[in-house]
Each structure stands twice: as structure tokens, then as C-alpha cells.
Amino acid sequence: MPPALEARGIVRRYGTLLANDRIDLAVAEGEIHAVMGENGAGKSTLMSILFGMQPPDAGEIRLDGRSVRLHSPADAIARGLFMVHQAFRLFAHLTVWENVVYGQEPRRLLLLDRRAARARVATLAARYGLSVDPDARLGLLPVGVRQRVEILKALHRRVRILILDEPTAVLTPPEREGLFAVMRRLASERCSVLFVTHKLDEVLAVADRVTVLRDGRVAARFATAATTPAAIVEAMTGRAPVPRPPRAALAAGRVLLDVRALTVRAPGRPRLVDEVSFTVRAGEIVGIAGVAGNGQEALVAALVGLRPPDGGRVLLDRRDVTAADVATHRDAGLAYIPEDRAAVGSAAAASIADNMAMGFHRAAPFARGIWQDRAAVRAAAAALIARHGIRAGGVDRPAGALSGGNLQKLVVARELAHGAAVLIAEQPTRGVDLGAIESIHALLAAERAAGRAVLLVSAELSEILALSDRILVMFEGRVLAELAAGTADAQHLGRLLAGQRDAAA
Ligand SMILES: Nc1ncnc2c1ncn2[C@@H]1O[C@H](COP(=O)(O)OP(=O)(O)O)[C@@H](O)[C@H]1O
Ligand SMILES: [Mg+2]
């Protein structure tokens, strides 16, 4: 039997960049096929071509062995394809069921049959275990639910080939398990699923086969049952994975960060941070786990001096810095790797050298009286670039020209360069490639070994589990539970992240 979907020799150029370089891909009926690769590998480009959003510069698409030309997504949908994008394309002011049937409404005598439409959506949701209220207004729903609405759209159109572009990036662990269950169910009904991800554990958990892309090319193909995680990582990055150094047990030292009943209010809403207390000691990494939007951002903003708390106290190495400004926090020994490296962590138009000095530019060795020592700034930047292997192409280029991974390494290098006693790292590896993740993790571990106190705030569970000595789970502004790293397993943590209080007992 020919593959349900086949791509042959797909080429796509953006200017001089070869985003897809002669890609071959075959997906069988009823197969869950992962497409894996680092940021920029060409995954989304390939999916957009398979879904008719743009034509390839060369190559051919076959459905059930027959060559087709897809002129638009509508064309692709008519042939049984459906794609759930990274950013959803739904109407906020319509209800769930209206979104699902939009453009494909059941009609009676040319009129929209509302009853039939609503009932169909409810039936599909029940049959596939997609928990949504058909009458809810879409704009008010959390992102995980919106994704289920997208999948319902696909089901309503009797999808035969479902394309999911990084669907798990926005999901909690239990939601992710739910999505995997739907994927398996669809596959058992002979639907083919193309599952784009850059996460190895997801590929191993759900995919039958995986095609690995690197720099626009197919780097390898595997049957997941017949390969090793190391082989997949090597294909994805082009080199063998770096083994994680064993972690020396350290006796945690004195308390360097002391947070007492910290509270941040939001007008007209529940407290963003609700009397949160914890400590971080020298030589310790404390991880704050939580699904985005449970108060982590407000907590960090209050801890680093970006917004004054409404209650409670913050002590840095016994010095009270509650409600002090960012500069005072720095003075007291705080380094901060912000979540938003582009807007908060760096200035895109300024040079790499100036970005390296940012926050420290008024002190020695960069300032001499009211003058800045340009040579010192440039030399320090060059040294950091060399030490951390940042691909910068010169210290006078604008920071905005750096790739995400290299910009993040720049911010991390800068923050760690001054020996601050306390480090707050907020989503330090979001959106960066595996190589940069490995080096940032190694740097955080080195900080711990050097006796610093590290607070790691991350939505990435594997990162929290790999690095933390203790784990605090945040849910709706509170610390729901505290776990020692050794006793935490991913499933238990997943239930806590979803706010299951009984799991906290
Ligand atoms: N519309 C576009 N214009 C120019 N370059 C693009 C465009 N879309 C993607 N690219 C580039 O093509 C490469 C592959 O991107 P993409 O397919 O989005 O990768 P992935 O989804 O694997 O992260 C990247 O270098 C990206 O910057
Ligand atoms: Mg992509």
C-alpha cells in the first residue's frame, strides 16, 4: 500500500537560506510520525508546504500514491488534511461549537442547523475524551482548551492526516497525556498523525517513527522501538550528547535568599502571589515549577525589584531589600536572568559589547569618572564571548543580530560574570536549542558548586528535575508543595502542577 502522505524532494528557499533541502518524508496510514529538530531546522516550513499554505520551490506531494498540487489550506482540508498551528486560528467572540463548525456548518434548507451543529460538537468531544463546553466563548478559554477546539475542528472535517506543529509547548503535563491519548485513538482509526516536536521524551512516548531534520535536511529516520535516545539526539544536534556530570552532594550553606510571606496583588483579581515563603541557601538550586500564569512572573518581578510587593519581606544575604529598586538588588548581590531576553535582558539596537556591560556600566572597570572606558567594555565582552563559545561575529555588531540561543548565552554570561551571591534564573532555556540548553545547565550547576544560591523558575519540568535540590510547586499564587529532588517523579509533579491538592499530601 502506498503511504497516506508522501513528500519527495521538497525544497524551499527564503532568499539565500535553504529552509527545506530536498526533504523526503513518508507517513503510513494509522501511523504517528514525529518530525523532530532544533529551532530553525525547517519543521514548520515543511508542514506549511504539506498543508498547502505555500508551494515548494521544487518537489512533489503524494496522497495515497497520487501526486497532488495543494493550492491552499482549503484545498488541503478538502483532501483530508488538517493542521493545528503553533498559534491558533480561532475566533475569540464565537462559542466553541461555532468555531468548530465554522466554514463547514450542517445546514437544513440552506440555514445553519444550530441544534445539529451543537450536538455534533458535543458528540465528537465525548467520543474522543476532549473535555470542552460547546457553549463556552472561546476568548475566555485557556490555551490548552483552545487546542482541543482546534482538534475538534479537524475531527468535524473527518481528518485523515492530522498535522500538529509543536502542540505540547502550551500544555500542562496532564493535558499533554490527554493529547497523546487522542493521537493514539486517531491512529487506531487509521488516521495518520504528523507530530512536530523538539522533545525526545515525547517522541519516545507516542511516535511509531521519527524523521529528524537538521539545517533543512533529513538527518536521520528511526523506528522509535528500534533506536536509542542518544542516537536521536546525535542526529538532531550533529554530535554525541554530553553526559551530565554526576552531581556532588553539597552541604547547603547559610540562607542567602529569604522570602517571607511575599504578596503581590492585582486589582479586582485574586492575589498573583499569596503569602509565599521560602529560602535558598548557599550551594543550593531551588526550582519553582508551575504552569505559566500561576504567579511565577509576579513573584520574580517582586524578588528582583521590578515591582514592589504588596506585603511580606525579601532579604538578600540578610539585607532587607523589600521594595528596593533593581540597582539596589544588584548591589546586594543579586544576578537575574530574565524570561524575556529580548525586551528585558538586552537592547537589540545596542552593540554586543554594550549589552555585555549593561547594568554594570556605571562601575569599575567600565567607568572612569563620568567617562566610560570603551576599551575595557570591548575587551570584557570579547573575553566572555570566547569563554562561553558565543557565536557573535564581533563585539560591535548589534545584539539583535544574534540567534536566540546565542543572545541567551550572552545574557547568562553577563549575569554570572560578577560573582553575585544569589542568582534568579527565569525560564533560562526557553526557545533555545539543545547545545545552548546544555551549556546553560552546566553554568547553573557550576554556580551551585561555587556556593551560590540559585532560584530556578521554569515551566520545563525536565529542567527542574535535572537541576534542583528542592522543588516548590506554584499553583494560583501559592506554593502548593515542596519536594526534595530525590523523591520527586514527573507524574507526581504533573498532578501537582495541575493543582491537585490531594497529590500534595
Ligand atoms: N517567512 C520566512 N521568511 C524568511 N525566513 C524564514 C521564514 N520562515 C522560516 N524562515 C527561516 O527558515 C528556517 C526554518 O524555519 P522553520 O521552518 O520555522 O523552523 P522550525 O519550525 O524547525 O523551528 C529558519 O532559519 C527560519 O528563520
Ligand atoms: Mg516551528
| CATH topology category name of the largest domain | Rossmann fold
Rg value: 25 Å
What is the mean predicted local confidence, pLDDT? 89
Reading side by side through the largest sheet, how are the strands ordered?
6-9-10-3-11-12
Q: How many strands appear in the DSSP assignment?
A: 24
Task: Describe the fold and architecture.
- With about 500 residues, the chain is α/β, with parallel strands linked by helices.
- It folds into two domains: about 5-235, Rossmann fold, CATH 3.40.50; about 255-505, Rossmann fold, CATH 3.40.50.300.
- It has 17 helices and 24 strands.
- The chain has a six-stranded mixed beta sheet with strand order 6-9-10-3-11-12, with helices on both faces.
- A hairpin with an 8-residue loop joins strand 13 and strand 14.
- Bound molecules: adenosine-5'-diphosphate and magnesium ion.
- Adenosine-5'-diphosphate binds near residues 17, 37 and 42.
